[in-house]
């Protein structure tokens, strides 16, 4: 059975195209899961940091919620969303669907950052939901 992997890349206008991140994304996936047969889907938004209108980002969330994605690979956590609210919306959708997020730049691991914030919210505000 093929594993459904979604690659999400938001690039800036200076950093045209996502192609240069495809192979590093595949390597990051293989580091965690080994060699597998994949069904790959690519979601790409070319937008500045101030532009919150991201069509591919919204489409990816819908695919995750529909159960069509098992793993998301991205460049790093800072490139997932425009702001914290979008980031948490995305991570909550992944968390609810059991979809891990692998970052090429491991220092910017989205899952680790999300878990850290969830612990903070629970400890200081006494609630489970971040938003």
UniProtKB/TrEMBL annotation:
InterPro entries: Resolv_N (IPR006119), Resolvase-like_N_sf (IPR036162), SSR_resolvase (IPR050639)
Keyword rRNA processing found: no
Keywords, ordered alphabetically: DNA recombination, DNA-binding
Domain of life: Bacteria
Residue ranges annotated for the Resolvase/invertase-type recombinase catalytic domain, each copy included: 5-130
GO MF terms, alphabetically ordered: DNA binding; DNA strand exchange activity
SUPFAM superfamilies linked: Resolvase-like
Protein name: Resolvase/invertase-type recombinase catalytic domain-containing protein
Taxonomic lineage from the root: Bacteria, Bacillati, Bacillota, Clostridia, Lachnospirales
């Amino acid at each position: 059975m093929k594993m459904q992997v979604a690659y999400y890349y938001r690039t800036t206008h200076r950093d045209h195209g996502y192609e240069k991140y495809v192979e590093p994304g595949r390597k990051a996936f293989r580091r965690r899961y080994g060699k597998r047969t994949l069904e790959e889907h690519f979601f790409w938004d070319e937008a500045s940091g101030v532009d919150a209108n991201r069509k591919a980002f919204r489409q990816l969330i819908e695919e995750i919620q529909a159960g069509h994605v098992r793993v998301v690979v991205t460049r790093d956590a800072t490139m997932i969303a425009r702001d914290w609210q979008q980031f948490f919306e995305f991570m909550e959708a992944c968390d609810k669907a059991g979809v891990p997020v692998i970052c090429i730049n491991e220092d910017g691991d989205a899952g680790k950052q999300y878990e850290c914030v969830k612990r903070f919210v629970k400890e200081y505000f006494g609630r489970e939901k971040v938003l």
